[in-house]
Structure formats: structure tokens, C-alpha cells
Amino acid sequence: MTGTAPLFDHVFLVLDDDAYAAVAGSSFLREDFARVKLKRLTSSIAGTYAGVGVAGSNTIVEFFPASAPPFPGLCAGLSLSFERPGTLRQARDRLAAAGLPARSELVHRDVPGAGSRPWYHLLEPELDGDHGIRLMLAEVAGEYFDRVGARRGDDGTLARSGYLDAALGGPPDPGLALVDVSGVTLRLTPARTARLAAVLRALGYTDAGTAGEIALRGPDSLLRLVADDTAAEGVTAVDLVLRRPVTPPRAFGPSSTLDGSTWSFVPHAAPRRTVEAGEAR
To answer: What's the rounded Cα separation, in Å, for the pair 240 and 260?
Structure first.
């Protein structure tokens, strides 16, 4: 594992509207489980969108409704991040050296009273030509990190926890169950499985699966990839580090269940929508 491998930042997934409403309205999640934030943002990459973030100390599980995904046809995806400024450039060079194409962009966000401001540097590898499953590599812009009042590390790092604490109004209550996300299981087509595995290996993730299983370990997470072209793509499970297990199981609609330390899902592909003129993809 190289010291420049990206950290796990958040997993995002589309839920059917009933499950999304159950998550958004859950008193259990807010009062007992985690910091929960309903948000509505406008960014240069996704336009205006709404979602629900369920946050641990450093990581987030983020949900979007199938009726209004932030990107056309989105099923799910991963966001990995770098805390040391300038590291994203090294990742870009490593992908290029491995022959893995990726697009880069400086994403802006509308800030009240300040207009559109730089938010984060994005590097997005191509995954078999479809945007239903996305891998996004991010490095928050120093200006934005400071603007939200996040505290930099003594060595100048832009820590995930510092950003989250500033954005969510303070550190997590120690009585909440969620510590952080420790792993994600993704079901993808065989072609996207192979491409995603190649990208993660190029970034410094190491093979940790047993025979017949693709599992890649990063600095703080384990990503399992299931190749299957007979079922809907998406996230099927999120593994969590908890202060106490969730018992009895908690269901959020028919397609999402928290049980023990695993949050399982029935993947739901968002319908593709027409992109309006001038709308960011």
C-alpha cells in the first residue's frame, strides 16, 4: 500500500422513493445512529440536487431519490479522497501511466453571499463508458476548506473529519452508534468490475480477496466487487464500524435494511432523464 492511495470518503447510492423517504424521515437515524443532514446544493458538475447524508467521523453514506438523481441514470458510486494538497496530481499520473483514462475538473459550488466558489478538484476514471456507476477521486480546495471553518491538520492536511465537523456543526455525539464506513460491496457488469479493479490497483489498493472473489483493500476500507450481468448494478451492502450493533434490524422501505453492522440494499437504477440545455452533467 502506497502512502498516496486515496482514503475512503463516501459511498452514494440511489434508493427507490419510498426507501429514500424512510431514510430522510427516520428519527432513529438522527437520534441514535449518526449525524444526518438533508441537503440541497448547486454545483458545477451536477446542477441543483437534493440528498441525505448519514455521517460518521470521517465517512458518509449518501442517498438520492430515484425520481431526482444528481446525474442522469445514476445507480451508485464511490468517492475516494486525498487529504494532502497536491496528491491528486500523483493519482492522475499513475492512472495515465497505467493507460486508464480519466477526466479532471475543478468543481464549483454556489456559496451564499459569495457566488460560485472552487469546491474540490475532481478526477473521474472512465468505467466502461457508462455513468450509472461512478468512481470519483476528490481533493477539497483549500479555499473552500477554510471558508467553511474547517481546521487544518498541524502538517497542513485537509482532513475529512475537519471538513465534516465544520459542515455539520461540530463533532459527532459519542452516544451515536456510527463510527465510520469500513467497506462496500458493489455489484457491476464484468467489464466494469475489471475496469474498477484495475483503477483501484493503479491507485495503490491491494488484493485481499479469497479464491473467486475480487476484494481490494485501501488505507481504511475494503471494497468488494461482484461481477454479475444478470441483475441490477449498484451497492448491495455497506459495512460499518459501530459502537453498538443495530438490533433488531431496521428496515427503510422494502429495499434497505440495517442489521448488526451491515446496511444492505436492493440496487435501484435511476431512470435516465433528459439533460436541459446548460445543465452540468
So the answer is: 9
